[in-house]
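Why do we bother with holo predictions? Because pocket geometry can differ from the apo form. Keep that in mind while you read this record for glycine.
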Amino acid sequence: MKLLVVGGGGREHAIIKKLRENPEVTEIFALPGNGGIARDATCVDIGAKDIDAIVKFAVENKIDYAVVAPDDPLVLGCVDALNEKGIPCFGPKANAAIIEGSKVFSKDLMKKYGIPTAAYEVFTEMNGALEYLKTAPIPTVIKADGLALGKGVVIAMTREEATDAVRSMMEDKIFGESGSRVVIEEFLTGPEVSVLSFTDGKTVVPMVSSMDHKRALDNDEGLNTGGMGTIAPNPYYTAEIADVCMKTIFKPTIDAMNAEGRTFKGCLYFGLMLTPKGPKVIEYNCRFGDPETQVVLPLLESDLLTVMKATTDGTLTEDMVKFRDGSCACVVMASAGYPQKYQTGYEITLPETVADRVYVAGAKLVDDKLLTSGGRVLGVTGTGETLPEALNAAYQAVNEISFENAFCRKDIGARALKALN
Ligand code: AMP
Ligand code: GLY
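The structure, written out:
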């Protein structure tokens, strides 16, 4: 079988490594992939947003099955376009990917179907938003409607920060059209949990839970990033809470999407907050999370390709998806300065002994050397029977890897360990 994976980060590297475990897979093309993925797949220099070129490549190379991993191509209709040419895909069609592509859509969906989430207002005019902020409860949360590279959310601790955020989104258009509508929502508190799920539009099967670490620096300080590390499972997410989430959030969301004529197939990501009033949805993503995937897939015992194809064919069952006991941790090694300005082009020393459990996010191959090429460079993982073992394994590997200006958080999993004790 010839597979194609759209995307080129650590998440795609983890997906590709897992897909390779299936003996029927003969070749995997990554579009565009990266210098680390090149060890595990054939990288082709086609951007993840270049839908026409992706489809042309898939047809010409007689691809049997495609996995569209990032949000942009999903929202742009990559799955629809590939399906039109008869190529089956993992991932939602554009009319379902909107659950991530528009915050206004997802908030209105939750309101309409009674799915617990933060109270909110939508604004299409800046003056209305600014007027509302004069009396809104503070802290408050401002969200750009559309995709914004994971940066479209501002937690405003003061009224001034809130109005600044609205102005920069709606007046200065720092996120372009994504900010032409904004959601202003209630500030929630509680531990956060990421739950990725497989769904064929009828059955929804949650994967092992995980915890992201979004801030750049230790103790959850510094700027928001794409994610500096993850652990799985998330100790806050008990079996009891999982039951509540299935009944009040997961199943109702799948049903709501069907009722809207927007059947969702693929990986639906639930970003949850366990508030004092119960679990609430912070965000939906229409795809695997990054770097959640890097800790979830190593614990997946079942064959990934089989499960993915079942979501496409509508034959998914709960028994098909098995996770092993134990824990997995991922520590992101980033370039100093990330998520702001940083330098690239430094050689990465990556010993063979640990390369197996390193997912490459931002590196390119030049003359057989792996050079840094992004803010987040590597996702270094460890697995173990327990979370402390997994964390030890991950940090030990980090110590064996080096590149100039590398930095990572030293406290990945610390909060989870506290919860366990
Ligand atoms: P997002 O970019 O949607 O993943 O949001 C980034 C982060 O903002 C989330 O992981 C939460 O920590 C935080 N956040 C989003 N919405 C809320 C909210 N209503 N209340 C408190 N924190 C929030
Ligand atoms: N780690 C959060 C995300 O993938 O959006």
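The two ends are 47 Å apart (CA to CA).
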